[in-house]
Amino acid sequence: MSFPIVDYRAPNAAQQFGRSLHETGFAVLSNHPLDQQLVSGIYAEWLAFFGTESKHQYAFDPKSGDGYFSPAVSETAKNHSQRDLKEFFHLFPWGRYPTEVSDAASRYYQAGSALAAELLQWVQDQSPPVVRDSYSLPLPQMIEGCEQTLLRILHYPPLQGTEPEGALRAAAHGDINLLTLLPAANEPGLQVLGKNGDWIDVPCDFGLLIVNIGDMLAEASGNYYPSTVHRVLNPTGEGRFKSRISMPLFLHPRRDIVLSERYTVGSYFDERMRELRNRS
Q1: Domain total for the chain?
Q2: Domain range holding 49?
Q3: Three-point CA angle 45, 51, 57, nearest 5°
Q4: Which of these, 224, 265, 5, lies nearest to 123 by C-alpha position?
Q5: What is the maximal distance between C-alpha atoms in the chain?
Q6: Which pLDDT score is estimated for 1?
Q7: Counting CB atoms within 10 angstroms of each CB, which of 17, 46, 106, 269 has the fewest?
Q8: HSE-up of 82 (CA within 13 Å, CB side)?
Q9: Residue 196 sits in a domain of what CATH number?
Q10: Contact (CB, 8 A) for 29 and 209
Q11: Which pTM does this prediction carry?
Q12: Cα dihedral sign for 211, 212, 214, 217?
């Protein structure tokens, strides 16, 4: 498996993008319109925020899912027993927003959502007719009026040497949603599971944008677009002493949308949440 870097401005960008998603579940974009100075500023101020006690004032709401998730309540990936080595904040347009940081992440949410909608149209256009005809609605229409698209700001703390055996910054998993947009993090570590069973490093040069398929789109497309398993490795050497900041935007459809004969978005999401709660 390889990840050709697709130039967003190229005349055939949509075709290259769709081909990469079909073949690998991932695509990597260069020259995209998201402001890299904005991203860099968000990384810096949120890294500082995670270093304060103020974050605990925004402890996550189990009903709404917004707010701060400490390492003690972090995720446990499917088929894993150890929690991931991370803390994070869930931002929704209607949710709580820390007063200790600027509105940069909110502005990024809007810009990222607009780009995500455009890329979803690319996916729609590049889907073969038999796949396109199987969608209950054109993909861009599935997200219209939905306020469940999630911006997660992740902090992977430096390693202390006391981590539980087998715990990773992010254990192998697939995303639940339609598409995920991920600006390259400030530190490497993201890997994708190849079809041959090997783990492959995802390009992480700052300024690149990683896009991957979520389980809902895999379900809706009959797995024409695969939701590829990925993970974040624990660093070694000097990297052990460095924080890693990451900022995935998870593009979600409305709950009433039919994904397949088996699932609506709501039933699929609820099933996955029950699985996560049962493992916690």
Answers
A1: 1
A2: 5-279
A3: 95
A4: 224
A5: 53
A6: 64
A7: 106
A8: 13
A9: 2.60.120.330
A10: yes
A11: 0.94
A12: positive
